[in-house]
From TrEMBL:
The protein's name in its UniProt record: Lipoprotein
Species this protein is from: Staphylococcus massiliensis S46
């Protein structure tokens, strides 16, 4: 009887653990492997989107720079009123993600989804420096 109870409890713990979502992995990081194209336009205002793109990245080596940075981006609270760019990320399934992008005083890239989200994501200095070389 005791074995049955222990096994039942263990089963429930494993089942609940398997149902947990990956909270430590951001949506940005989850989608970064599917990036097909990245476009940049000048920032015009919070939660507004400028579609006059003046930079476009489709080469594999350029896309890889963005992918590597986005994959390790961490969600952090950051209060920014003015960004440098609007960025449109096109995924391989044809869907788009629109974000604001800037670099902070520590030369880290800070990203925020355009719209209702207040979440900001920060890319570490190593990966940020690669993105900065590419876009600034």
């Amino acid at each position: 009887m005791r074995k049955c109870i222990v096994l039942s409890v263990l089963f429930v713990v494993v089942l609940l653990g398997g149902c947990q979502s990956k909270t430590d992995e951001s949506i940005l990081s989850q989608q970064s492997g599917d990036i097909k194209e990245v476009k940049l336009a000048d920032f015009i205002g919070l939660d507004a989107f400028n579609e006059n793109f003046d930079k476009e990245y489709t080469k594999t080596e350029d896309i890889d720079v963005f992918k590597k940075g986005f994959q390790q981006a961490e969600e952090k609270k950051y209060d920014i009123e003015k960004y440098d760019y609007n960025i449109k990320i096109t995924l391989s399934d044809g869907t788009d993600r629109d974000l604001h992008l800037t670099k902070n005083d520590q030369d880290e890239i800070v990203l925020k989804y355009i719209g209702d989200s207040t979440d900001t994501y920060v890319i570490d200095p190593k990966h940020s420096s690669e993105i900065i070389k590419l876009i600034y």
